[in-house]
Amino acid sequence: MTFLLRALSNGTDGVFIGGCHLGDCHYNTHGNYQALNMVLLCKRILKHIGLNPERLRIDFMSAGEGIRFTEFMNDFGSTVKKLGPLGQGEDIDQTELKLKLKAVTQLIPYIRLVLNERLRVHFDTKEEYIAFYSSDEFDHLFDELIADKLAISQIMLLLGEKPLSTDEISKLLDLTPSEVSRHINSSARQGLVKYEASQKHFARV
Questions:
Q1: Residue of 80, 126, 135, 146 with fewest CB within 10 Å of its CB?
Q2: How confident is the model over 93-119, as pLDDT tens digits?
Q3: What does the angle CA 42 – CA 177 – CA 149 come to, to the nearest 5 degrees?
Q4: How far apart are CA 205 and CA 187, in angstroms?
């Protein structure tokens, strides 16, 4: 995921990953399953921060399927071209986009832990993985394990630049004031932020 986010942070409009057919890899029989699991989670994260998940794709082929690889790449290139430049196609300000991608990047060690411990699923087919990541069960897990952490990561980055009020954070991150207050209070209990009453804003400790 580090490589995917680095590419997007550097302005790449789309990322394609090619892997061996599931269950048919000469080097690591589980590596392509793990890659699919990671990519589908990353696509969900991209959607959560406002980026089109179609900018990221994974497909499977053998080393002898040159024509199949060409077809995959032509189709993906066409998709990315239709989506337009990263961020612009989604009408996201570049400063906001940079903040969101940085917030996700900072959470990679935590996300890796979540993948290993709470989202360690194994299916036989790509369709079964897609079904799981489209399910209500996964939506619940995502909200519980990742969504709040991403919001806090973004808030901490903003407060690292300058002190802000709850309303200012709410507008910048498109969160409700109550959501911001909940995240701020959680961070304050951990000693990460403080409230400066004279200025009526929060600042990082």
A1: 135
A2: 999 999 999 999 999 999 999 999 999
A3: 30
A4: 10
d(CA 52, CA 9): 15
Pick the CATH number of 162-205 from 1.10.10.10, 1.10.540.10, 3.50.50.60, 3.30.465.10: 1.10.10.10
Q: Please give the Cα distance from 187 to 166 (Å, whole number).
A: 13
User: pLDDT for 192-204, tens place per residue?
Assistant: 999 998 888 999 9
Q: State CA 185 to chain mean position distance.
A: 24
Please name the amino acid found at residue 138: F
Cβ atoms within 10 A of the Cβ of 162, count? Answer: 10
What pTM did the predictor assign? 0.91
The pair of structure tokens assigned to 202 is 């929060």
State the pLDDT confidence band at 148, using cuts at 50, 70 and 90.
very high
Q: Name the residue with tokens 């980055």.
A: 157
Question: Closest Cα partner for 45 from 115, 116, 94?
Answer: 115
CA angle 128, 129, 134 (to 5 degrees): 95
Nearest-angstrom CA–CA distance, 35 and 58? 8
Read off the amino acid at residue 105: T
- Provide the residue type at 96 as one letter: E
Instruction: Give the separation between CA 9 and CA 49, rounded to whole angstroms.
Output: 13
CATH 1.10.10.10 residue ranges for the chain = 162-205
